[in-house]
Design a protein that fits this description.
mainly alpha; Arc Repressor Mutant, subunit A; about 110 residues; single chain; 6 helices
Length: about 110
Amino acid sequence: MTLPTGVDDILPHFQKLLSDGKEHRSDEIFEALAQQFRLTSQERDERNANGGLRFQNLIAWCKAYCTMAEFTELGDEDTLCLTPAGKEANSKNPRWTVIYLKSFKD
């Protein structure tokens, strides 16, 4: 695989990772998704225009959209897990998108 170009490319993998009901650390999420996409070290280290790590930035947007929809919550020690609303949404919609997540935003 190649480096994903947008949040919608990562969201299904992000959703599946969190659907196990466990808390996941940010570094664990990054590593699991990087392995799923079979990213090379060069792709993992690719920077966007503002100097941030591109793949890490995409994951941060996944977290942000899911948290704004109240589907995830931050736990202790930089962990993330699905909320009851996120578990319900996961059972009803097998593929989250940015548009879907934004529809839950107040």
